[in-house]
């Protein structure tokens, strides 16, 4: 916000600014799990009292409380007033705001495809080579993260525009350990076992899976995770890489094969709670509740690491619910692929305070504060793994470390119109009974149309 | 009053209206009932069963050793699966998810390792075993309970205490009231000019207004934001302000306002105005003293509509006011709530009702006003 | 508390500013061309001059607002429709060529056509019936309030309300959606209503009809009350029945209003967006033009060229309504 504001709005905005000052969640210097030296060092290097920045991100509700608790340290260290905001339709909001020339200072987005669009339109500020070098040195598998943040700008030149911060692991299957014990099921170690278990549960009179693709305007996305996970388990990673750039068309047998692998689970009335017809209409937030019904409506649920927020109140991870790694085919020798996602921070309006914020993300403390509270994984090697809030997070961290292949969510890498549009719709159609070939042809046609 | 009120037809009329009203209120009634239901019941049974006793399958986890006593050399845990008020009866229980209703109340279930479990009809359970329960996960007790209807205001308490709701309420008010009054004021004058003043290009203007009715709002967003930003930069103020959103709502609401008001005003009897004109009244006088009072019903109707639209609007508010916490309107706040709590039907129901409370209030209080206006006006149009 | 005062102050200031303009400009006009000053010819000349200017004073703010908020964006859109996704490079007719070959566009056009056929007709008809029926009974006001109520409900609210109606649970489990419960009670098989291609259009339309009927009813009921008592009394004396009076006397009298209501709802239908976005987002073949436009405009980085092209199509679709209205306006002007 520049200068003074007009009439009434001014007073309102000032009032809000005063309310933004937040207490620090963990008192600096006290808890030994945290790297307070990095905090003190950062606070000494930056003194930007009186400046302010706006940050626009995807986190709302409880996540917003968490991110604001991290931002409070940035404010305490630098004196910069931070105004964080989000919106249910943040993808549209950021397009509207940047395009119209009223961007936030910092935007944080989970879709590399969308970031690529913004970069190509010249709406992002390059972060510089030193940040690229920093990522390469300090993030595990640094080169892949640099690649993820590098896009072609308006002039076509490639540069680092986005800084990865906060990772989610997607290749997880959630289950209730006691239900498995009651029925005598074992956690499957291979995809063959998982398929056998699925059939065994049906033979025992149960329903193995809860699958819900509903998500309002984004209905269909949970299926894209399934397909990507299956693709990484049926084809080498370079097929995946060529697929997300459409070097390999959607209609390739490898892709339709992965779609059909998903269909094996989701299009069988006996395999999913409510039958195949319920898959596309069940809300993804409602879907995991079937695990906890009595008798259980299903035994397994494939979803990313964020899903416990939607478990029934009072559910304790490790006791009431747990997860296992979505296994790979023993017969295919593709190692242990892991699908993940994450958010990337970028500067949408250059300034001293915005630069300072990117520098803040390079401190361990910016990661540890969130790690210590809830659902936050990071590839930053310098953070203290002891800071993870619970055993479940630590276990997810291990899955991330044990991965022989890590790939970023493909639907997020594709152009927004495909990855956040045609692919979703296609998956909904597929769940509704269309053939994989037809669906793939339609998605490919749409992709051709935007080239 | 029309004729036929006393004929048998009257019954048909009454019945059809009852049917119509029922059809129209049933969906909303469902939401209202749901919003007061217990969150455990809302997602498992239809709202129309709210008044009947429902049979629910529930799970209770016995404590992991806390409060256990040693009786006759066995560790014994006691308590009730039916915690809290409300009560109900246990009609069956079990210890495995495979057979959650294997035992009748009072029967003794034999678990592995010699552990025994009894649950009685009033919910009391006794779990006993040779070893301490400390260090275990806590035995799960599955039970089927006949739960009497339970209504609660907890859902509302939950939604209303969500941070920032009060502020959002004020924000919505600050947006909606001027965004209702300003377009009416502007549209009334314009409608009068288009209905009763003679000037070149009038028909063309009317046509233009009709054409503008269909301009999709979403299309205007980016060109307008660009204008706002350049104006904001030129004069050094924040382009996302209340004045900006009032004017935006005014612009978007004007075509319908002018269109409706003009049609209404054009239907007013010409003689009244001719007489006034002969008496030497100017257009401004005719407008303020004759047309405006006569058009009151139309003005009131449009005022209600415009208020509802601006109050219920989300898109324009997000774009022209922004999603920042201090400027977020009520619909925005609730949509955020729905996003983060989308799977919780009780939150959905209660927050949806909170969002429609003000419009309903405005509507029901304004309607009397509206009807009075309709009856008071001796001359009406169509 | 402080925020409350600021809010109140801004509200009062905003309204007062608008009021001041109209009063002030008229006062000024009367001062510059006084109607009662000087000799007779000067006065009448002044009146004539004022009459030339006054319409534009009355229309001024409306024209400026319309120009900025609607006309300018229309031209900006026409310009954009000939440009690429970022709105920078000129691409000629490429967007239009793409549009005619796009299956998504054809699907939306077809669905929009269905909506245009169904919603205005159903809403106006039901609104007229409701207005006529409630007019004759003692508790008509209450009934009208209840039918009009959906109009007051936000789309967020409406989406949740209808979620409780259309909800689908697998066969065998207890349905919590009203419609499926009814179907099951009559021995039918539960359906995922909003996911059945083609028919789901109608289930979405029901929501808009549910909302718009109240609007139609309020306007039409005002019109019905405006019919002079004498005409009806005359018909009663002639021995006409209630239904005859309604069809032969009342409906023709309010034909103009019915047309207004129909037009207004038609236009709402062309812009229908929130319901589709909230319920299906165009999936299961339920896409409509306005949502398709929104999709291209803002989703996935945005393609302003194509989004604008679809907007132009929506505007072109309304041309017949425009022409018809212009004719009406001309006819009225002739009467006067």
Question: How are the elements arranged and paired?
Answer:
The complex is a heterotrimer of chains A (451), B (382) and C (336).
Chain A: H1 7-20, H2 36-45, E1 52-56, H3 62-78, E2 81-85, H4 90-99, E3 106-109, H5 112-120, H6 129-138, H7 142-149, E4 150-152, E5 158-160, E6 162-169, E7 172-175, H8 177-183, H9 191-203, H10 221-234, H11 237-244, H12 253-266, H13 276-279, E8 301-302, E9 322-325, E10 337-347, H14 352-361, H15 364-371, H16 391-402, E11 405-408, H17 410-413, H18 416-431, H19 436-449
Parallel strand pairs in A: 1-2, 1-3, 10-11
Antiparallel strand pairs in A: 3-10, 4-5, 6-10, 7-8, 7-9
Chain B: H1 9-35, H2 39-42, E1 54-61, E2 69-71, E3 74-80, E4 89-94, E5 108-110, E6 116-119, E7 124-129, E8 140-147, H3 154-160, H4 165-196, H5 202-212, H6 217-235, H7 242-266, H8 270-278, H9 283-294, H10 296-312, H11 315-320, H12 330-340, H13 345-376
Antiparallel strand pairs in B: 1-8, 2-3, 3-7, 4-8, 5-6, 6-7
Chain C: H1 2-32, H2 40-80, H3 94-101, H4 103-134, H5 140-148, H6 155-166, H7 178-185, H8 199-225, H9 229-237, H10 242-253, H11 255-270, H12 274-279, H13 289-298, H14 304-317, H15 319-335
């Amino acid at each position: 916000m520049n200068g003074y504001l007009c009439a009434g709005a001014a007073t309102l905005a000032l009032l809000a600014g005063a309310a933004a000052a937040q207490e620090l969640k963990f008192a600096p210097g006290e808890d030994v799990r945290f790297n307070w030296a990095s905090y003190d060092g950062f606070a000494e290097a930056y003194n930007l009292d009186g400046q302010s920045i706006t940050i626009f991100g995807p986190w709302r509700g409880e996540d917003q409380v968490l991110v604001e608790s991290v931002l409070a340290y940035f404010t305490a260290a630098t004196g910069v007033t931070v105004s964080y905001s989000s919106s249910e339709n943040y993808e549209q909001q950021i397009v509207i705001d940047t395009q119209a020339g009223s961007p936030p200072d910092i935007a944080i987005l989970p879709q590399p495809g969308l970031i690529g669009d913004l970069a190509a339109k010249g709406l992002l500020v390059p972060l510089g080579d030193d940040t690229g070098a920093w990522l390469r040195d300090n993030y595990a598998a640094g080169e892949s993260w640099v690649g993820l943040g590098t896009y072609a700008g308006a002039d076509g030149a490639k540069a680092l525009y986005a800084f990865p911060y906060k990772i989610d692991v997607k290749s997880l299957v959630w289950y209730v350990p006691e239900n498995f014990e009651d029925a005598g099921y074992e956690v499957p170690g291979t995809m063959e076992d998982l398929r056998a278990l699925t059939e065994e549960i049906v033979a025992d009179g149960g329903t193995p899976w809860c699958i819900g693709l509903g998500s309002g305007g984004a209905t269909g996305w949970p299926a894209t995770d399934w397909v990507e996970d299956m693709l990484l388990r049926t084809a080498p990673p370079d097929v995946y890489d060529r697929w997300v750039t459409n070097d390999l068309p959607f209609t390739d047998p490898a892709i339709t094969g992965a779609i059909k692998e998903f269909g094996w689970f989701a299009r069988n009335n006996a395999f999913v709670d409510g039958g195949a017809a319920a898959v596309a209409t069940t809300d993804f937030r409602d879907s995991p509740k079937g695990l906890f019904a009595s008798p259980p409506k299903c035994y397994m649920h494939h979803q990313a690491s964020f899903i416990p927020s939607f478990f029934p109140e009072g559910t304790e991870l490790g006791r009431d619910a747990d997860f296992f790694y979505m296994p790979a085919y023993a017969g295919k020798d593709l190692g242990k692929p892991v699908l993940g996602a994450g958010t990337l921070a970028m500067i949408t309006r250059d300034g001293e305070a915005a630069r300072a914020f990117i520098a803040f993300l390079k401190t361990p403390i910016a990661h540890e504060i969130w790690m210590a509270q809830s659902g936050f994984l990071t590839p930053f090697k310098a953070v203290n793994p002891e800071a993870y809030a619970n055993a479940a997070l630590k276990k997810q961290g291990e899955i991330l470390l044990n991965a022989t292949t890590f790939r970023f969510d493909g639907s997020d890498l594709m152009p927004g119109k495909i990855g956040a549009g045609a692919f979703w719709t296609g998956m909904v159609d597929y769940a509704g009974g269309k053939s994989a070939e037809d669906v793939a042809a339609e998605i490919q046609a749409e992709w051709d149309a935007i080239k | 009053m029309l004729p036929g009120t006393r004929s048998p037809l009257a019954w048909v009329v009454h019945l059809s209206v009852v049917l119509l009203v029922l059809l129209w209120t049933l969906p909303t009634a469902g939401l209202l009932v749901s919003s007061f239901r217990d969150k455990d019941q809302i997602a498992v049974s239809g709202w129309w069963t709210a008044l009947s006793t429902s049979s629910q399958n529930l799970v209770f986890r016995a404590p992991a050793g806390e409060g256990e006593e040693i009786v006759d050399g066995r560790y014994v845990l006691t308590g009730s699966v039916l915690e809290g008020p409300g009560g109900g009866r246990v009609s069956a229980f079990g210890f495995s998810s495979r057979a959650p209703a294997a035992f009748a109340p009072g029967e003794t279930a034999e678990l592995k390792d010699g552990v025994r479990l009894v649950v009685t009809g009033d919910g009391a359970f006794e779990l006993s075993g040779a070893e301490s329960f400390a260090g275990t996960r806590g035995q799960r007790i599955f039970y089927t309970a006949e739960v009497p209807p339970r209504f609660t205001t907890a859902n509302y308490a939950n939604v209303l205490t969500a941070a920032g709701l009060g502020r959002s309420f004020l924000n919505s008010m600050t947006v909606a009231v001027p965004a209702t009054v300003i377009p009416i004021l502007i549209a009334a004058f314009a409608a009068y000019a288009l209905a009763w003043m003679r000037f070149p290009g009038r028909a063309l203007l009317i046509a233009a207004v009709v054409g503008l009715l269909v301009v999709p709002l979403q299309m205007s967003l980016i060109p307008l934001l660009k204008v706002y930003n350049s104006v904001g930069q030129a004069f050094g103020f924040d382009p996302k302000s209340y004045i900006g959103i009032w004017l935006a709502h005014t612009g978007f609401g004007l075509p319908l306002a002018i269109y409706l008001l003009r049609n209404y005003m054009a239907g007013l009897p010409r003689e009244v105005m001719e007489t006034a004109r002969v008496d030497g009244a100017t257009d401004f006088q005719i407008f303020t003293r004759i047309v405006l009072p006569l058009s009151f019903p139309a003005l009131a109707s449009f005022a209600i509509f415009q208020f509802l639209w601006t109050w219920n609007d989300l898109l324009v508010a997000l774009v022209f006011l922004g999603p920042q916490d201090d400027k977020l309107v009520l619909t925005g706040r609730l949509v955020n709530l729905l996003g983060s709590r989308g799977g919780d039907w009780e939150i959905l129901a209660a927050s949806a009702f909170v969002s429609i409370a003000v419009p309903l209030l405005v509507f029901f209080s304004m309607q009397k006003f509206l009807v009075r206006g309709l009856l008071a006006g001796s001359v009406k149009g169509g | 508390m402080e925020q409350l005062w600021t809010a109140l102050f801004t509200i009062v200031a905003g309204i007062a500013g608008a009021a001041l303009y109209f009063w002030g400009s008229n006062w000024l006009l009367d001062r510059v061309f006084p109607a009662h000053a000087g000799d007779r010819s000067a006065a009448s000349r002044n009146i004539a001059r004022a009459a030339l200017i006054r319409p534009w004073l009355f229309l001024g703010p409306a024209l400026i607002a319309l120009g900025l908020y609607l006309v300018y964006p229309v031209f900006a859109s026409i310009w954009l429709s000939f440009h690429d996704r970022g709105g920078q490079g000129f691409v000629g007719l490429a967007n239009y060529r793409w549009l005619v070959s796009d299956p998504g566009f054809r699907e939306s056009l077809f669905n929009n056509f269905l909506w245009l056929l169904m919603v205005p007709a159903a809403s106006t008809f039901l609104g007229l019936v409701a207005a006529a029926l409630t007019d004759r009974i003692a508790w008509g006001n209450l009934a009208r309030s209840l039918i009009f109520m959906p109009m007051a409900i936000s789309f967020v609210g409406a989406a949740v309300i209808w979620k409780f109606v259309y909800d689908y649970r697998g066969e065998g489990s207890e349905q919590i959606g009203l419609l499926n419960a009814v179907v099951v009670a009559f021995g039918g098989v539960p359906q995922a209503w909003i996911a059945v291609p083609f028919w789901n259009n109608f289930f979405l339309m029901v929501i808009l009809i549910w909302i718009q009927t109240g609007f139609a009813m309020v306007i039409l009921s005002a019109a019905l009350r405006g019919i002079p008592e004498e005409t009806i009394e005359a018909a009663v004396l002639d021995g006409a029945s209630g239904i005859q009076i309604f069809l032969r006397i009342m409906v023709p009298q309010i034909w103009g209003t019915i047309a207004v209501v129909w037009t207004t709802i038609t236009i709402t239908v062309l812009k229908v967006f929130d319901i589709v976005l909230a319920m299906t987002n165009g999936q299961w073949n339920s896409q409509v033009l306005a949502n398709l436009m929104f999709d291209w405009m803002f989703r996935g980085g945005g393609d302003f060229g194509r989004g604008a092209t679809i907007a132009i199509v929506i505007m072109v679709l309304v041309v017949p309504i425009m022409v018809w209205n212009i004719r009406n306006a001309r006819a009225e002007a002739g009467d006067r």
